[in-house]
Amino acid sequence: NESSDRSLCSDVLALPIFKQEESSLPPDNENKILPFQYVLCAATSPAVKLHDETLTYLNQGQSYEIRMLDNRKIGELPEINGKLVKSIFRVVFHDRRLQYTEHQQLEGWRWNRPGDRILDIDIPMSVGIIDPRANPTQLNTVEFLWDPSKRTSVFIQVHCISTEFTMRKHGGEKGVPFRVQIDTFKENENGEYTEHLHSASCQIKVFKPKGADRKQKTDREKMEKRTPHEKEKYQPSYETTILTECSPWPEITYVNNAPSPGFNSSHSSFSLGEGNGSPNHQPEPPPPIADNLLPTSTPQEAQQWLHRNRFSTFSRLFRNFSGADLLKLTREDVIQICGPADGIRLFNALKGRMVRPRLTIYVCQESQQLRDLQQKHEDGDAVTSTFFVYHAIYLEELTAVELTEKLAQLFSISSQQISQIYKQGPTGIHVLISDEMIQNFQDESCFVLDTMKAETNDSYHIILK
């Protein structure tokens, strides 16, 4: 089996897509053989242009094999001979817009699909994996140990569908692409798996059962109708998907010596209260908003900043640069060194440019303001000294779920305690707020909030006036 795995490995190294991915790495990496190779046993789409990244369609909940291949040359990384390594699998967003709000997106998914996980390992089908684990607060992550010298195949199941994270407009929207990312670590001297060895990822879309097969067929038929000249601009459909080298996932804090909870299957019980205040199940904190590089940063700190912000590919090029050196680079310098796409991203990150929210609204709490006003009347104060205090709410996703979460933060209550949100319409009617209504709010609209106790339990209705 191992010899056939190795021959598969040498075959896939010759594939043009693998060469293209390598060409985006720094020049001294051009002919580098990577220590491991991961092969997802699912065909790539034929409707992908020559220089674009491959795209693979998966069916929701179906088990797909990922072969873990030892790709080391003789004498390379001898310290892992006879040792286990740890691999962490993640399903993450491919789109930058969704990456910025990943924490909120996954929390929203958790509430809509209680008890489900985004990513699972099919343990009975898998071969060679040791101690598989899944943290109940990280629905999109699984991990296990494996021995590179032995045949290892892990079967994964992805339970979220690409259209679950699409902005709803007219129905039939395109699903968002995800990434499957694998980060592999070796043990340090304390026996903790924290020393990064290799990371690779590929782009996927997930469909309802059998939907991936239909989409693959549609793409194939679409390509067959193209002229031979047009076909030359597209890649062939490969039988398997090679995960290509990428930067390590920045949240290395997860890979620590704290014992991971045991493996949970997607059918494990789940209470809605989990993760809200129980010390054992703290939800993952959202990433810090600002991570600006300082002129006083040493070259070592600058390297750490590059890794945290997904610029590991360029860390070798900038290994002697201090914070001040990097901050002195002009936009043209950075684009020349890193190429247009990564250059613009690095320049924006260096300047600490904030992404503007898609929608800003201002709200004030009516009952509180009226009480204050009434009190002033009674105390005989001049009414002219009264002014209403508004709070700004910034929305990225333009959904009712997001607005509920932001208002819950404002009132310092749990989002579950907000039963419904209404907008006061003509003649005082209460119109239920929908995603579409929020998408049609004017930027910087002002609302007065009134709260009304819901008929049941401890929840509230909120009315925007």
UniProtKB/TrEMBL annotation:
Listed Basic and acidic residues bias regions: 210-234
Annotated region (Disordered), positions in chain: 207-237, 265-294
Location(s), subcellular: Nucleus
Source organism superkingdom: Eukaryota
Gene Ontology terms for molecular function: DNA-binding transcription activator activity, RNA polymerase II-specific; RNA polymerase II cis-regulatory region sequence-specific DNA binding
GO cellular component: nucleus
Domain Grh/CP2 DB positions: 30-269
Keywords tagged on the record: DNA-binding, Nucleus, Transcription, Transcription regulation
InterPro entries registered for this protein in UniProt: CP2 (IPR007604), GRHL1/CP2_C (IPR057520), SAM/pointed_sf (IPR013761), SAM_3 (IPR041418), TF_CP2-like (IPR040167)
Pfam families (UniProt xref): CP2, GRHL1_C, SAM_3
Similarity section: Belongs to the grh/CP2 family. CP2 subfamily.
Descriptive protein name: Transcription factor CP2
UniProt source species: Chaetura pelagica (Chimney swift)
